[in-house]
Amino acid sequence: MQRILSALSESAVLLTPLRSEAGEIEDYRIDAASPESVDVAGRRGKELVGRRVLETYPTVAGTALWDGYLDTLATGTVYEGEPFTYEEVGAGYPQQSVYSVRATRLGERLIASWIRHDASDREVRRLSDMQRLGNLGWAGWNLTTNSFVWSDQVYAIFDRDPSLGAIALEELPRHVAPEDLARLGAAVQRLLRAGQAVDQPFRITTAGGVRHLRLVAEAQTDADGTPVEVHGFFQDLTAQRDAELALRESERSVLVQRGMLKAERTLAARLQDTLLPIPEQSLELAGLCIDVAYVPADSGVNVGGDWYSAIELPDKSALFVVGTWPDMAWPPSAPWRSCGSPRRA
After folding, report:
1. How far apart are CA 279 and CA 67, in angstroms?
2. CA–CA separation, 121 vs 168, rounded Å?
3. Which UniProt keywords apply (predicted)?
């Protein structure tokens, strides 16, 4: 019978009824299983052979499935049950799955097959699209069976061949950049020992270069508070980090440019003050009281190109000159205030 089941591509097992001395069925033993048989706890194929149904799946007792098995053995009628939710409590935490079961009598035994309805193909495609668009992938680690699984997107994020399998949670720090090793290792230890949820950024090196990743994970614990399972996701933040670095570089460039402009304006103002000083008080020239007011035409820069001069001539008269450079605003603002009556100006 095992050879026959080994040729099947669906979940199917051979059940042998175990009877009491009074002839009543107390349990069933799995004596053969197809390679694709997977139960709610992830046990597959040969791992199921030899297990007893009620010892392995105790909540089946008294359900419509149990009654259907009994009726099929008694009458030979094929049992096809409605989809039902099965909940298993293992290591102190519940796991639920939805199944449709079919049972057929084979002599004094049963052939039971089932279909798991936990996720439809459409839901799987949606989940895959969400992971791809968010550049993240889910991961799970069973600490009691030392088994772990990654979604396809996690393999893409780590640039890892799926045939190599997922990386154990304890081994994860070995694959990160040395600068991030201590922080990620401490976070993983908190998760595994104390069951504390983590949200930790870190970097890895791949064939395509350095990638900035984020691990978000939480632990499920048993009745004693010991972590037994870890669920979480990895997210690739490389593109986001590159954009942040580019923005910072742009801001730095703007600040440098502002500093250069400020320095240039300061230098221009000093040069102008050297070449064209503004008197701090009135000047006496040829019997005149001279005041200067200089206001550039352009605001903000505070540097203009106008020029002026006042000269006392040998005959004690005053010569006033006001001008502007080409392309500069005219008239310049250089008013003069007379303190007396000059002989000639």
Report:
1. 111
2. 28
3. Hydrolase
- The percent of residues above 70 in pLDDT, for the chain, comes to 80
- Residue showing tokens 């010892």: 55
CATH number of the domain located at residue range(s) 2-116 in this protein:
3.30.450.20
Q: Name the pLDDT band for 106 (thresholds 50, 70, 90).
A: very high
Nearest to 115 by CA among 97, 127, 94: 97
Cβ neighbors of 292 (< 8 A, separation 6 or more) are: 278, 279, 308, 334, 336
Which class is 121-236 in CATH? alpha beta
17-20 long-range CB contacts below 8 Å, 24 or more apart? 17/73, 17/108, 17/109, 17/110, 18/52
pLDDT tens, residue by residue, 277-293? 667 778 788 888 888 77
Helix (H, G, I), strand (E, B) or coil at 80: strand
Peptide bond into 331 cis (omega under 30): yes
Tokens 């040395």 identify what position?
A: 178
Question: What one-character-per-residue DSSP string does 191-217 give?
Answer: IIII---EEEEEEEEETTEEEEEEEEE
Residue found by looking up tokens 């190599």 in the block: 164
